[in-house]
Design brief:
Elements lengths: L8 E6 L26 E2 L8 E7 L2 H8 L7 E8 L4 H9 L2 E2 L2 E2 L4 E4 L21 E8 L6 H8 L4 E9 L2 E2 L8 E3 L2 H9 L2
Parallel strand pairs: 3-9
Antiparallel strand pairs: 1-3, 1-11, 2-3, 4-8, 4-9, 5-6, 7-8, 9-10
């Protein structure tokens, strides 16, 4: 890293169908299409078919703090799922489920009363007239691979669209899709203080 370059940490609103890396040997869309900041790297992943908040930084210690489950940074997701989950199903998600032989940690789960005002996705979600959908807010304290999708599928409510809206004290807010912003001094201090 160039010691003369100031440390940068940014929030990025990742679009659907963009890989959470800067290169791809297959030529698919990557972060490089949207971010031209030398020396910043993703602090954690967000799958290609998921959208929303990613944090990128040139500060290796901060990246570790963000991704290390020991720091217990909550991550908030809004998931559009098939069918309306019952309270019993939501309690299953809250208590934790066994995925690949490992129990997930308890999660915050609530049913949203209305659809969030996200812009339409370039590839529409699968729509079936006879199958209603619902939006759930899930707050996780760990980062198993494809965890939200695996959790909702395990209780019979597959995720159709997934948007991450917060990582610890940093929220997506009204950051437009495909755009980034620098973190505020307050957000950086709160990230370093958590855990």
């Amino acid at each position: 890293m160039d010691r003369n370059r100031p440390i940068q940490t940014i929030a990025f609103n990742k679009p659907y169908d963009v890989l959470p890396s800067f290169t791809d040997p297959e030529g698919r869309a990557t972060l490089a299409k949207y971010i031209d900041l030398p020396g910043v790297y993703a602090a954690g992943r967000l799958d290609r078919d998921s959208e929303g908040l990613m944090l990128l930084t040139s500060d290796g210690a901060l990246a570790h703090r963000i991704t290390d489950p020991g720091h217990k940074l909550p991550k908030v997701y809004l998931a559009q799922v098939e069918r309306i989950p019952s309270e019993a199903v939501m309690n299953q998600l809250r208590r934790g489920l066994v995925l690949s032989g490992r129990r997930t940690k308890p999660a915050g789960v609530r049913l949203l009363e209305r659809e969030p005002p996200f812009p339409a996705r370039p590839v529409p979600i699968r729509f079936r007239k006879q199958v209603p959908t619902a939006w759930l807010e899930l707050t996780l304290h760990e980062g198993m691979n494809r965890q939200v999708r695996r959790m909702t599928a395990a209780v019979g409510h597959p995720t159709l669209r997934l948007v991450r809206t917060a990582i610890g004290p940093v929220t997506l807010g009204d950051l437009p899709v495909g755009r980034w912003r620098e973190l505020t001094a307050g957000e950086l201090a709160a990230l370093k203080r958590k855990g």
